[in-house]
Q: What sequence folds into this?
């Protein structure tokens, strides 16, 4: 009798899990290796691997669609999907529901050797033109410095293009995500950058450590999707699988 009750309970739990699971569209950046990018026409990178693992834990299905970051951000606001790799700031908190942090992204400052400069605080960037991602937030402190003119950012859509502009002398520096691993992968993505690798230097102090999230516009009311995703991330942390995915990405 007891086994029968347990079996029935399991069936009810499975039926409930199926009934609440959803298929949701998740937008993301198509050019931010190794965190998230397009490879051979398919979504790839750390955040995509995390979403695939989370599917098996949540029961939800994630339809991942990648585009330039600003477009993905706008689609998440207007086209009924979530967005992965979202940085938190106070303005976004008014319009998005955020998951817990998934991954801490170190934003490095890259310069040319011979034209480098000391960096310890945001005021050290005053008077310089720095390349950054179109539509990106670098956290409230950096965003405020950009808004007030303390930091001047020239926006673009790809890290490789940003480094080529730096190489051509059109920028004083470039914001490059995912720490030194992101820098090296960006260099490897373009032969001109490979040929000139020795001309670049990464400043010792990162601009910021930027926790990345999954987010949904508040109008979508996807708190249940976020809750299941958060629970999956917690399980991955406890099992060590999340750290393994991060370590494998950094290799």
A:
């Amino acid at each position: 009798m007891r086994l029968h009750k347990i079996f029935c309970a399991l069936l009810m739990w499975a039926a409930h899990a199926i009934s609440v699971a959803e298929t949701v569209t998740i937008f993301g950046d198509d050019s931010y290796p190794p965190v998230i990018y397009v490879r051979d026409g398919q979504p790839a990178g750390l955040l995509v691997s995390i979403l695939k693992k989370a599917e098996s834990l949540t029961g939800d299905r994630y339809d991942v669609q990648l585009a330039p970051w600003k477009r993905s951000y706008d689609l998440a606001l207007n086209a009924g999907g979530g967005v992965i790799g979202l940085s938190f700031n106070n303005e976004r908190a008014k319009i998005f529901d955020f998951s817990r942090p998934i991954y801490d992204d170190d934003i490095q400052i890259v310069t040319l050797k011979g034209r480098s400069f000391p960096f310890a605080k945001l005021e050290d960037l005053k008077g310089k033109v720095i390349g950054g991602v179109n539509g990106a937030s670098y956290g409230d402190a950096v965003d405020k410095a950009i808004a007030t003119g303390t930091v001047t950012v020239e926006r673009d859509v790809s890290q490789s293009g940003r480094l080529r502009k730096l190489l051509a002398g059109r920028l004083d520096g470039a914001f490059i995500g995912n720490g030194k691993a992101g820098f090296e992968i960006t260099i490897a993505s373009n032969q001109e950058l490979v040929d000139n690798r020795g001309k670049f230097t990464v400043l010792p102090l990162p601009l910021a450590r930027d926790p990345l999230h999954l987010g949904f516009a508040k109008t979508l009311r996807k708190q249940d999707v976020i809750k299941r995703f958060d629970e999956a991330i917690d399980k991955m942390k406890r099992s060590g699988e999340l750290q393994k995915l991060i370590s494998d990405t950094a290799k």
